[in-house]
Amino acid sequence: MKMKFTKKIATILLSVCLIVPCFSVMALAANGVIFFSDLETSVGDEFTITGTAVVSGDVIGNATIHMTYDPSYMRFEEGDGVNADTDGNLTFKGSGDGSSDRIEFTMKFQALQEGSTRLEQGDATVTDSAGSSVACEEGYADVTIGAGDPSKIKDVANGASVTIDGQEYTLSGDFSDSMIPAGFTAGEITYNDSTYKGAVQEKTGLQMAYLVDGDGKGDFWMYDSSDSSFSPAEQVVISDTYSIVIFDAGSKVSMPSKYSKGNLEINGKTFEIWDEPDRDGFYVLYAVNNDGEESLYLYDSAEHTYQRMETPKSATTPDKKSASKFDAILEKISDHLIWFVAAAAVIVILLVIFLLVSVVKLHNRNRELDDLYDEYGLDDEPQSNPVKPIPSVKEEKRSKFKKRQDDDFEDDYDDDFDDDFDDDDYYDDDFDDDYDDEGLSDDTRSVDEFDDYFDDDDFDSFDDYNIKKEKRKKGDTFEMDFIDLD
Q1: What pTM did the predictor assign?
Q2: How far apart are CA 45 and CA 62, in angstroms?
Q3: Cβ-based burial of 128 (10 A; exposed 0-12, middle 13-18, buried ≥19)
Q4: Who contacts 219 (Cβ-Cβ below 8 Å, separation ≥6)?
């Protein structure tokens, strides 16, 4: 009985001895280390600290490392994959290349004052190729700063308070180049007469500021130096080589009246947009791409896609600041198309009425001329008095002069005639004597005797003459001047 119990004890001890080496191997495989380079520098000089994360015996996967430093001794400028959370706090995030056991990254600082300081590692998460967590020893970097040239220190303010929509933010310069949106580079911005580190788009001149909220979360905002205002900005990656930054257009764009302006939340930020009038769920927003080109984009809220669109007519952009008069007229017509069509229809109707009236008048005038030709037989027999050409000015003056001469001659002739033939001379006694010889004296002539003296044939011939004269007075012959209407 004791032998069986002893064998069981020995078996258990042997099993424990076999298991312990296995745990030792696993712990050895899961060990890692994080370390930083020490250095010496001078006041005003810029220096670089290199950080390294290593996994022993395996390929490193991902690494997230938090670090702290004293901002009174050195100022963070930029880093490879390093984010400045708040002043004095940094975070690195990176991944291995799939074959190496380590990840290296760099951080750039500027020395501000003499003395010794340290950059220390905080919490860290490191994984191997299988995604398993690796425990790592904490590291740090000692920095010794000696005397130097303080004039080299950049006059860059940090920590200014900014209030946006009732929420407090801190204007910070603790960010790395990798955090800057595509198309922008690190630069300087001026806020309240102080210079701060920010991001600048060289082609367009757009500026961005890095603001940190009360929870220590930082983000880039679009900054307008003309009125010292901030507006939301959001980078959207379209492809591996193309991305856009959405922001409020402000006064840069004035859309046609059919686009109604509103607000839309995208990735937790609110932007000014215009509703697409022809399609539900589509909106027009403003953005700049990584090539520095500002444009309008059509956003599909259902599929979260962005499509660059042509600027609507009469809308103004930086490339088209004002619409031409012709475009303005076209826009007016498109906005009030029904009224313009109605006005055009009225004008056409009035023109048709005018043409009809003109045709009727012309027809009536031609008919009157035809009746006049028929009445006087102008088409069948030649004119008794053909149309005379219009005399020239000289001929007209000559004819008027000749007419005056004829009138003077007639006046002279009448006066001479009156002088030669007086009443007393004309009615002389010889005529009376001859008259009396015929037996027709004043005392003896009567109506019957008068009839006997003039027979009927004489009166018939006189009547024929009067009839012919009356016909001529009615206008058997006339003169007419024609004007060529062609």
Answers
A1: 0.44
A2: 32
A3: buried
A4: 210, 211, 213
Instruction: Pull the structure tokens for residue 228.
Output: 């010292």
Structure-block tokens of residue 374? 């028929």
Higher per-residue confidence, 457 vs 228: 228
Task: Say what the pLDDT of residue 253 is.
Answer: 84
Q: Please write down the HEC assignment for all residues of 213-262.
A: CCCCCEEEEEEECCCCEEEEEEEEECCCCCEEEEECCHHHCECCCCCCEE
**Cβ(255)–Cβ(265) below 8 Å:** no
- Determine the distance from the C-alpha atom of residue 277 to the mean position of all C-alpha atoms in its chain, rounded to a whole number: 17
Residues 6+ apart with CB under 8 A from 115: 73, 145
Lookup: tokens for 205: 């001149």
Encode pLDDT of 171-183 as tens digits. Answer: 888 777 778 999 9
By three-state DSSP, how is residue 103 classified? strand
Q: How far apart are the C-alpha atoms of 249 and 235, rounded to whole Å?
A: 15
Percentage of residues in the chain having pLDDT higher than 90: 32
Other beta carbons within 10 Å of 272: 17
Residue with more model confidence, 253 or 410: 253
Q: Is the separation of the CB atoms in 47 and 73 below 8 Å? A: no
Q: What one-character DSSP code corresponds to residue 320? A: B
Q: Are 43 and 111 in contact (CB under 8 A)?
A: yes
Q: Do residues 34 and 65 touch, judged by C-beta distance below 8 A? A: yes
pLDDT per residue over 34-57, tens digit each? 999 998 999 999 999 999 999 988
Q: Is 446 helix (H, G, I), strand (E, B) or coil?
A: coil
**Among the listed residues 263, 94, 101, 84, the one whose alpha carbon sits nearest the alpha carbon of residue 176:** 84
